[in-house]
Design a protein that fits this description.
The complex is a heterodimer. Chain A is an all-alpha fold. Helices cover 76% and strands 0% of the residues of chain A. Chain A is built from six helices and no strands. Chain B is an all-alpha fold. The longest helix of chain B is centred in the last third of the chain and has 31 residues.
Chain lengths: 169, 100
């Protein structure tokens, strides 16, 4: 089971990586990059690095790729021509995907409403979770690099604002 | 459990894809994205080896790599916007003002 999942996720990640590199339109590249990020996050979950998987989705797929999209739309790189025909096909694809999402979400929400899920976890867990281990290491052994990383992010913010503003005279 | 070698092969393939993108694409934004792909490939091998050795240090390193990647992307995209304002293009063949 794990092997099958691994090969499927690896295939998704690698194929979207190929599309990232070889497609001509930057917007398509970004969208396939998001798919590759999600595939990588699933691989992290297979490797029992759940915290990193969530950070991967939030930071990479959520923040960095949206930044790429913003810049592409700001620079207006694509001479985008919407194909006027074939709209029916796209509606059909959208409806099918929405139905699949509903089918996917109903069991999940039912489990949440009945409250059977999180309550069964004991309050004091004998074995630490992945997040707890990472937090413990990060705030003790690697405290100095952690603080330095925050300084680096601050420097990046300041640098971005300085570079990105209109030339002040 | 899947062998660690399989993860390393996937990571190597992803890294090579990133290298190809950096070498052959001429769009600055796509080059930045290929850089991200390479960083992610390295992250994957870090996590795989961290799992294989049963130590958490690899995952900590991946967190710091993510911080650096975020900073790099922010500054890189700001540079791309600035270059586009100056030259009206982000094709790296035409950005040759610092070429000797």
């Amino acid at each position: 089971m794990e092997a099958v999942l691994f090969y499927a996720l690896a295939a998704v990640t690698l194929v979207s990586g190929v599309f990232v590199v070889f497609l001509r339109r930057p917007v398509h590249n970004v969208l396939f990059m998001i798919l590759a990020m999600i595939g990588l996050a699933c691989l992290y979950i297979l490797l029992h690095a759940e915290f990193l998987a969530m950070v991967q989705i939030i930071v990479y797929a959520g923040a960095i790729m949206v930044l790429f999209l913003f810049v592409i739309m700001l620079l207006n790189l694509d001479e985008f021509v919407m194909p006027s025909e074939r709209r029916k096909v796209r509606y059909g694809i959208g409806i099918v995907l929405a139905m699949m999402l509903i089918v996917f979400l109903i069991p999940a929400s039912r489990g949440m409403l009945s409250g059977a899920g999180p309550a069964s976890v004991p309050a004091d867990m004998a074995n630490l979770t992945n997040t707890e281990i990472i937090a413990r290491e990060l705030f003790t052994t690697y405290l100095l690099p952690f603080e330095l990383a925050s300084v680096l992010l601050l420097a990046a913010i300041v640098g971005t604002v300085v570079i990105g503003r209109k030339s002040a005279r | 459990m899947v062998d660690v070698q399989h993860y390393l092969v996937v990571s190597a393939a992803l890294f090579s894809l990133g290298v190809i993108g950096v070498m052959f694409r001429r769009n600055l934004i796509v080059i930045l994205m290929s850089l991200e792909l390479m960083l992610n490939a390295v992250n994957l091998s870090f996590v795989a080896i961290s799992r294989y050795l049963g130590s958490i240090e690899g995952q900590i390193v991946v967190l710091f790599v993510m911080v650096v990647a975020a900073a790099e992307v922010a500054v890189g995209l700001a540079i791309a916007v600035a270059v586009f304002r100056q030259k009206g293009t982000i094709n790296v063949n035409e950005i040759n003002i610092m070429k000797w």
